[in-house]
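To the structural biology subgroup,

Please find below the input and predicted structure for Single-stranded DNA binding protein, which we are adding to the shared reference set this quarter. The sequence is reproduced verbatim from the submission form. If anyone notices a discrepancy with their own records, reply to this email rather than editing the shared folder directly, so we keep one authoritative version.
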Amino acid sequence: MDLESHAEDLASDLGVDNEEVLEDLRNLVEYSVPIDEAKGSLRRKYGDGSAGGGGPTATDVGSITTDVSAVTVTGRVLTAGERSIRYQGSDHVIVEGRLADGTGVIDYTAWEDFGLSPGDTITAGNAGVREWNGQPELNLGESTSVAFEDDPLEVPYEVGGEADLADLATGDRAVTVEVSVVECERRTIDGRDGETEILSGVFGDESGRLPFTNWDPDPAIEEGSSVRIENAYVREFRGVPEVNVSEYSTVTLMDREVDVGSDAPTMSVREAVDSGGVYDVALVGNLLAVRDGSGLIQRCPECNRVVQRGQCRSHGDVEGVDDLRTKAIVDDGTGTVTAILGHDLTAEIYGGDIEDAREEAREAMDQEVVADRIAERIVGREYRVRGHLSVDEYGANLDVSEFSGSDDDPEARATAYLEGIEA
Ligand SMILES: [Zn+2]
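Predicted structure (tokenized):
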């Protein structure tokens, strides 16, 4: 059988244009692809799920849902990052990234070494579909065939994982960032293979700041250095996204300095809470109330938890250590957060230190007077609060680093107001 006859058969089988199939077939055979494999690949390309071994139907990326267990899909590899995971007791190197076509983008995990690189256009036959964080995701495994296409698929997405810190979200993989190391400390932790040294701290760029962990300490990562990091991933740690730099990441010292913005982005409360946690954010809203557990409080000397009536939840009967704290409800019309102010900011609002608070409490024979005084000063006014926002099932807490009357910063107030309207 000659090429023309093969093409004719295939074209009538698939119900597509004869000339197109012939040209594709010629290309494949020119690249020494055996005729049967070439025909199989074209069946997948033109979406015949019934023939060629009953593989799943060819699908656009944008149409993949978790209603099907497997698909055949052609797409451009945007990112491909190696990572080591422990699976059923042994270490396994996987490749994670994103695949796109003209209709959308999907995350994938490759369990086999298919040799994927950013920019490749592939057809993945019989790729598994699983649900991850409510979204479909592709699993390229043993039963998946990966064919590399010669013509790059044009996609409306950038190839490569370049990102600003402000755009990173939990779950992102194979990202590339250019950052300045704002804070960095070496720590010893109990890892899965015993004690191990890691680096942790804070990265910054023009867009914002995020905490990081470097699991395999890289000498280029030290306070004050500017580095380019390829193939990092983002996971949640204590309610905010954290950049993870692994042994598979590439860290390069840069010869330019990355500027770190001094201000945090201003967001509406709803926007900030919906994002699931923000490392450094400014909110502007009305201070509705001061909550219980504010003012003069006592902490456990062992674990620093707040003790009530001399009882620590972990350590029982303890001699509490006095401290000052404010837990305030801030509302901007789109939502509420509990702003938590530590000793220094609370002392500033209260207008006195712990000794003053003790004395006032002794005179009144009630330590609640300290919280009452704080409430008198701040409830009913509008403030700009900046800090780490974490969100859990009990609500949203802002660990406050800056607290100021919103009139102090009319620009921030206007921005927040406009963003509130847009939201
Ligand atoms: Zn305790």
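Summary notes: Residues 300, 302-303, 305, 312, 314-315 surround zinc ion (CB under 6 Å). The radius of gyration is 29 Å.

Regards,
Lab coordination
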